[in-house]
Design a protein that fits this description.
mainly alpha
């Protein structure tokens, strides 16, 4: 594995982590919103 592949891999992991955090936050907000309205 060379340096370019390593950097690309790191960037992909960063993006996946950000997406996971965003999705979990979105889910939490939606459940909170439903809990307050219902």
């Amino acid at each position: 594995m060379n340096e370019v592949e390593y950097k690309m891999c790191k960037q992909m992991v960063k993006r996946l982590t950000a997406l996971t955090v965003f999705l979990s936050a979105f889910r939490a907000i939606m459940s909170f919103y439903k809990g307050t309205t219902v």
